[in-house]
Amino acid sequence: MAKPILIANWKNFPGSLKEAEFLLKELGKRRHLYKKTILSIAPPLPYLEVASERIKGFAMLGVQDAPLVDRGVHTGEVTPEIIKSFGVKLAILGHSERRAMGETSSTIWKKIRVALKAGLAPVLCVGELSRDAEGEHFEYLRQELKSLLHGLSRVEAKKIVIAYEPVWAVGKDALDVIEPVELTQTILFIRKALSDLFGRETAEVMPILYGGSVDAVNAGFLMRNTGIRGFLVGRASLNAKSLSQIAESVLER
Ligand code: PGA
Predict the structure, then answer these.
(1) How far, in Å, is the centroid of ligand 1 from the Cα of 113?
(2) Model pTM greater than 0.70?
(3) CA–CA separation, 167 vs 207, rounded Å?
(4) CB under 8 Å to 236, separation ≥6 — which residues?
(5) Ligand 1, atom nearest to 125 Cα
(6) Residue 7 in contact with residue 43, Cβ under 8 Å?
(7) 42-86: per-residue pLDDT in tens?
């Protein structure tokens, strides 16, 4: 069976380099556990250097966004080349917190292409703002996937990881997460939408993760038989003990 995937989205935490170093040291103590998974850490950019040193051998490095431009003179921007020089392998794109700050689908569309061209695997966040009894959110998801992924080749599609993050479940309490039965249905639906875009063979190999208030309490039941390959973890990834408990849960699936 393919290894489960865990992506730690540190957001804009911890608040200092010293705390980041401490967290990385704590994570390293469970390296044997993480080697059984595919773990990626996406820290704030100023921590890339120290993270790239400390996670060697048990995790990959990610970023929480990708540049919109791959070359030229752009004050305040970084280029894929700079990011890649730290050994970064993937970029979380379209996160709901970035969209809430004004990022549009067309910007995300461009960033997916910049990331792919640079050899960074896009981790594309999709998810409805709310759910209703009529199932409108399924159509919303279908449109979102279509508008962001159309025009990509099957070879490119296979480099993309989908992170299903229902916006209503991000940053909430552990017990506010999606019900496993709803998660199962949604993952099937996403897989079908990917299959309509790229064909069944491609859709079947594209990993789909779940994100939104994942923690040590709910990781086990969210992972079991729901069709996900792993998790995109926010707050709980800032606590070494919680992250190791989540890793244990995904390995028990
Ligand atoms: P959360 O964040 O786990 O804190 O809900 C998930 C995310 O923002 O990717």
Answers:
(1) 24
(2) yes
(3) 20
(4) 214, 215, 216, 242, 243, 246
(5) 9
(6) no
(7) 999 999 999 999 999 999 999 999 999 888 899 999 999 999 999
